[in-house]
Amino acid sequence: MRRTVGRLYSIADHAATALFALEGARAAVAADLDLLGILVVGFSTALVGGILRDVLIGDVPPSAFRSPSRIIVALAAGAFVFLAAGELDLLPDELFVLFDAAGLALFAVTGAQKAIDHRSNGVVVVLLGTMTGVGGGVVRDVLLNRVPAVLTGDIYATAAALGALGVLVATRCRVSAVVALSIGFALCFGLRMIAFTLGWQLPHAL
């Protein structure tokens, strides 16, 4: 069972890496960056959140640097966007919102699960799950010289926090790790897509 959970965690983490690298690279293309810029922004979007999480829980060197697989996935996704930018522009924006929501949910739940595995307290689990989901996007926006979308746009970090909280509560209820991850994923992905569809936002100052 533990081996199955570990394999599921690895698959989810690599899938999220690919999805976020695609999203970050597309933003770099839209900003008219060159090949190196596209690769750097895609890499940062995909991996910075997990690197920060690992450093904060003392899991060093971060998992992204202990194996080349995540780096290869992130760079390959960035290169794919560079080569297929014209074709990707023909796809509907809603499809990429779907991909981004899936990546956010995967990173939020895997981040929370790793924090749980390192015996972090509940508050830290939610914070690190959220950071894993949104940290790369914050760095992406800083590199592109814009206010981080997570601070101004649709409900995003809140969805990541809900997903991480779902993993925490489910784990405390002693359900299996697979079920806990699935619950957290459904909560984060569901809230993010509902918020996008209905235009939900957190309140702004008057």
Rg from C-alpha positions? 16 Å
Number of helices: 9
The secondary-structure element order is HHHHHHHHH
Which geometry do the CA atoms define? globular
The average pLDDT score comes to 93
Give the strand content: under 5%
Percent helix range: over 70%
Distance between the termini: 52 Å
Low-confidence stretches: none
Describe this structure in words.
The chain is mainly α. It has one domain (2-198). Helix content is 78%, strand content 0%. It has 9 helices and no strands. The chain has helices spanning 2-30, 35-57, 63-66, 69-83, 85-88, 93-117, 122-143, 157-172, 177-198. Helix 1 (2-30) packs antiparallel against helix 2 and helix 2 packs antiparallel against helix 4 (69-83). It starts with a helix and ends in an 8-residue tail after the last helix. 47% of the residues are buried.
SSE arrangement:
Elements: H1 2-30, H2 35-57, H3 63-66, H4 69-83, H5 85-88, H6 93-117, H7 122-143, H8 157-172, H9 177-198
Sum up the structure in keywords.
206 residues, mainly alpha, 9 helices
In short:
By secondary structure, this protein is mostly helical. It has one domain (2-198). The protein has helices at 2-30, 35-57, 63-66, 69-83, 85-88, 93-117, 122-143, 157-172, 177-198.
